[in-house]
Amino acid sequence: MSVFDMQEPQGFVAVEQDDLRTLFGQSAAVYAAFVGPEHVVETANPAFHAAVGEERALLGRAVAEVLPERGDQGFVALLNQVYRTGEPSTGRDVRVVLGTGPHAREAFFDLTCEPRRDRDGGVAGVRVIGVETTQVKHAQRLMAEHRALLEQIARQAPLTEVLDGMARCIEELTPDEILVSVLLADADGRHLRHGAAPSLPDFYNEAIDGIATGEGVGSCGTAAHRREPVIVTDIATDPFWDDFRPLADRAGLGACWSTPILARDGTLLGTFAMYHRTARAPQEADLALARLFADTAALAVERHRSEVAQREAEARAEAARKALAEAVRAERELRAEAERRADAAAELNAQMRAAAAAQANAPHPEHCQLGGTAGCAAAAEIKVADSWGDSAWGCPVHVEEALIHVRSVFIAGEELGGLAAYLHR
């Protein structure tokens, strides 16, 4: 099954395209002119200023001063090449590290560099025209990761693996440090369980595992309750976090933006949260990123729930099949046992009839045979027998006692002093 066989939530494709435009819009062209072997900035347009950093004073300064950052500066190498050879050159995805320390960012540019010549034809400097491709590269990486996630969902990878990979992908690709958390709703939608949060501390994940959904229950509990995004820009002051503020302080969290994960029918599946170390409000690109991956998480959770339901249905069907097979087997065994008992009873009955017939031809004693050691002088009038084929004649009194006290004794037959004699005693 391919990722294209999976059904998307209604409107997902259109919303996704809008969000991608927001995340990765067009970049403005940059222009700058440099002079001398040190590449002193002679002029630059606003886009170049913005790319390098508005706070930097560029004009009249060498590139080495403007971009003192360490690392392989492909941009400087390209300028050196054009200045040295006098030949124009084009660089694709030239890497430049802008800024230092925690504010440093990696940028990429498509650049066309041309030599600037003096009156004598010598190379006096270099002019650069280009477009920043950082957003394009980030888009390519993000969409590659996004496709990989969809392929994981399509091949039925474990839900925890998909969600953990998604969280790590977002954390790695966003320029600002964020910590991603996915909580999954219980079947009743009243509680949220830990799904994935690879960068949040374990004590934090354990503490919020199982939180209730409801108004004012942090960012995630409230988003789940409202079925709409909840943006908390400052955890330290927001009343939604009154009950969780000490926990957030311990984890070093300053802001939390939570988006509900909803099924196609509107059922709550969970929440997708983006935490920040400092208080801050989201930009439109942040919200677009949250929507994109909340929809992706919805696909993963729905697929997982569908698979679980299918496995449970198959297990119930298999259990029912086994129970039916066991019932059929037991019924067959009972039927066979009943037939065996019937055959045995018929055989025993035939033996008893044969024994009774043989006894019928035996001499009829004159006196009762059931008087015990003391004997009984009464006339032998009634014949009795037992299951082992033994028989005896007795008087009505002793026959009555034998029938009452000896369970295996029965009237031997209707004729020859049998049942008729007993009934007319």
UniProtKB/TrEMBL annotation:
Residues of the GAF domain: 158-311
Listed InterPro entries: GAF, GAF-like_dom_sf, PAS-like_dom_sf, PAS_4
Keyword annotations: Coiled coil
Coiled-coil segments: 310-355
Gene3D superfamilies found in the cross-reference section: 3.30.450.40, PAS domain
Any Pfam family matching the protein: PAS_4
Record carries keyword Cell membrane: no
Name under which the protein is recorded: GAF domain-containing protein
Source species: Lentzea jiangxiensis
